[in-house]
Design goal:
With 262 residues, the chain is an all-alpha fold. It contains 10 helices and no strands. It has helices at 7-24, 26-29, 61-97, 99-113, 117-127, 132-159, 162-169, 174-210, 222-229, 237-258. Helix 1 crosses helix 3 (61-97), helix 6 (132-159) runs antiparallel to helix 8 (174-210) and helix 8 packs antiparallel against helix 10 (237-258). The longest helix has 37 residues, at 61-97.
Length: 262
């Protein structure tokens, strides 16, 4: 099943699966409440009771990291899935038919590209501070641009190919052409873009949390955890490094899966 993937992509997939299993199965193998505070056990080192120690409020770090990974992955699935769906749909329509369809979607694309991606997400986050849907919408729109531009460019090239022209002359429907000719050529590129976009989504969410414009406490979120633990760097550097390590592992797994690293 994995014969068509490189060794790096397989390693990335296994690393991501390991992180997701550790996060989603945490309530079963380690039933600790990520919001429970014990001020008598602040900044504890790893032990038999607290596998990864506790934070500055005595909350279990493993439970909070697992919850943060679940939150990040939920945002990834929603934002990348939405950007992929509409980027593929609108990109194929714009590239295959051109005309006013192409002009409208290209105009929207240029508007989004007029601002840096992070600033665009910040504008959406300002609409409803601390809300999940604003982050999801802003990140989705930023990533949609990349999907749309790549799919549109490839579709324009494929639309003029001999195989597409032959199918059209034989009276085949556009859906048949998409299924038989467009999608098989677009699929490998889309998979690579999806993995790369997922890594960017993790970084975007962590960055917004780190500068305190993303989700609000006591929500377990990787960037927010970095901000909360930063004042205790000298006292408990290991605890402070944990969310940073998790972000690095998530991004690294998606980078491997994108095929950009051999």
């Amino acid at each position: 099943m994995l014969n068509g993937f490189s060794r790096a992509q397989k390693c990335g997939a296994f690393l991501l699966i390991f992180l997701l299993l550790a996060a989603y199965l945490q309530p079963y193998y380690y039933p600790m409440d990520e919001a429970f505070q014990n001020l008598n056990k602040i900044l504890q080192k790893p032990s038999a009771l607290y596998w990864l120690g506790t934070d500055h409020l005595g909350r279990d770090m493993l439970a909070r990291l697992a919850s943060a990974v679940r939150l990040s992955f939920s945002l990834i699935v929603l934002s990348v899935g939405c950007a992929l769906l509409f980027g593929l749909l609108f990109g194929v329509l714009a590239g295959a038919f051109g005309g006013w369809i192409d002009r409208i979607f290209s105009f929207v694309c240029h508007i989004i590209m007029a601002l840096p991606g992070l600033l665009f997400v910040l504008l959406f986050a300002a609409l409803s501070p601390g809300a999940f849907w604003t982050l999801y919408l802003g990140i989705s729109l930023v990533m949609w641009v990349e999907f749309f531009r790549v799919v549109r460019a490839m579709t324009q090239t494929l639309a003029g190919s001999n195989e597409i022209q032959s199918s059209r002359l034989m009276g085949m429907s556009f859906f048949y052409c998409f299924k038989r000719h467009f999608f098989p050529r677009l699929a490998p590129v889309i998979l690579t873009l999806s993995a790369f976009a997922a890594a960017n989504a993790v970084l975007a969410l962590a960055t917004l949390g780190f500068i305190n414009v993303g989700l609000r406490p006591p929500t377990p979120e990787l960037g927010l955890m970095m901000t909360e633990l930063f004042p205790y760097y000298y006292e408990a550097p290991y605890i402070f490094m944990l969310p940073i390590i998790v972000v690095c592992l998530l991004v690294f797994s998606f980078q491997l899966m994108s095929g950009r690293m051999k």
